[in-house]
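Exam revision sheet. Question 4 asks you to relate a sequence to its structure. Input first:
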Amino acid sequence: MKNKIANVKISKRLILISASVVAAAVILSIVLLSTKNKDAAEVFAPDDDPPVITTTAPATQTPPKEEEIHEGTLSPLTGLYVDDDIAQKRPVAIMINNFQAALPQYGISRASIVYECLAEGGITRLMCVMNDYEGITQLGPVRSARDYYAQMAQNHPGSIYIHYGKSPQAQALMQKYAIKHIDGISYLDTIMFWRDSDRVKKGLYEHSAFTSGERIDEGLSLEDLDLTTDDMAPSFDFYEKDTTPVGERAGNLKISYSYYIKPEFKYDEETKEYLRFQFGEKHTDALYDDVQLSFKNVIIIETSIKDIPKDPELRIEVEVTGEHRGYYFTNGVYKEITYKKADVNSVPKYYDKDGGELKVNPGKTFISYVSSLKSVTIEN
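Answer key, structure tokens:
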């Protein structure tokens, strides 16, 4: 019994001692915490600036630039993106009458590239190169071939030269170099062409032949010519996007072909294109509500142009091959260039003054062959 009472007393003492130890530990923790907070309050007093902590920021990373995505395929004629079926369509090079009495013209604003050069008598003719001609209901008036225009058509591999009639020189050249062409004076006359009855009544028979996109395709098919081709090569070394090259200011330009025709190109700052004028008026397309012809690029080539001796029709000869000086106009500036065409069937190359291959802006192009660059007046 005494031992049991003694054990109980000992247990109580142990409990009291343990409680005392715990209480002391709690009191000590409270004291230490109070001291720490006091020190912190003294170190970070409201009137003092907080300490500056320096950290190393992670290196800045520039996200990869997203590539611009375009739908379609680059056109070999304009350097612009077009539907795949248009890019693969065989181009045609069509002779267009540019005599003042033959106006208005129809469908020509759809051309990707337009050529102009003198013909006999001081007049000029146009050659419209295009492969996006679907839906053109009237195109012309169409005129006869000349040998130098046939050579220009060969600047665009796979193209078909379309004309109504031909000079003896053109016939000989096209036969010699196997140039693919379609002549309206053939079994294709009423299939590919028709005569405008109003013009015929007015005595303008030679200015009355027209064709259309649908009739062109029909004629090509009858001649066993594929409507698509893999032979095409880019007409120029195109910039990837619109670029203003280093050059001299060229707001407007005027070409004096002869006493009869002196067309002008006036630069439009808003559209960044050259608007064409001739015979003192806007040069327009009657098929599309008289829209004015406009071009991103204008190229002028100086070459030899002279009369053919004793030719009964006073025809001329124009040197298309070889190396020649010229000008390139775009975005309101111009620069001197060199044009080189190795032979009749080759694609010309264009070079800048330093000898590098000329870069050309994507868009429509007008190309003029003149006897002298002095016939070109440039206005700032």
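Marking note for examiners. Confidence is low (pLDDT under 50) at residues 1-62.
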